[in-house]
Design a protein that fits this description.
InterPro entries: Endoribo_LPSP/chorism_mut-like, RutC-like_sf. By secondary structure, this protein is an alpha+beta fold. It has 3 helices and 5 strands.
Length: 157
């Protein structure tokens, strides 16, 4: 089964690639890997929430935003090389804009990690970092990056 078919089976639709908010590209291919830029939880070009997790944003909501970030990252991968060329998820790096007392960054980034396992099964198991930060671009509560391995290195368009 293709990954696109798996998304359809799960009722998940990839969003359009989020427009960069500065001078960078959403994803870049290096050999048989794709590295995404940090993806915010943008939905139709807007953030669903702003502020610190543990204060203005709940842990549960932040986990959903991490899931949206991961979907945005997969959209960037798909636009660059096609999702069906993904062999496995290598690494997730998650940043959580955290209230000083908030220490559950790993639980927030589980929103992205759990999505990868849901879509890719064993190929979705990955290394990961979950980092608390003072602030993120546009006052987003969470940001996620992906590194994926490709089954083969498709020629760049």
């Amino acid at each position: 089964m293709s990954w696109k078919a798996r998304l359809a089976e799960l009722g998940i639709e990839l969003p359009s690639v989020a427009a960069p908010v500065a001078s960078y590209v959403p994803a870049i291919q290096v050999g048989n890997q794709v590295w995404t830029s940090g993806q915010l939880p943008l939905v139709d070009g807007a953030l669903p929430a702003t502020g610190k997790v543990g204060a203005a944003v709940s842990e549960a909501d932040a986990a959903e935003y991490a899931r949206q970030c991961a979907l945005n990252a997969l959209a960037a991968v798909d636009a660059l090389v096609g999702l069906d060329n993904v062999a496995r998820i290598v690494k997730i790096v998650g940043f959580v804009s955290s209230d000083p007392a908030f220490t559950s960054q790993p639980a927030v980034i589980n929103g992205a990690s759990d999505l990868m396992k849901e879509i890719f099964g064993d190929a979705g198991e990955h290394a990961r970092s979950a980092v608390g930060v003072a602030v993120l671009p546009l006052d987003a509560p969470v940001e996620v990056e992906l590194v994926v391995e490709l089954a083969e290195a498709p020629a760049k368009a």
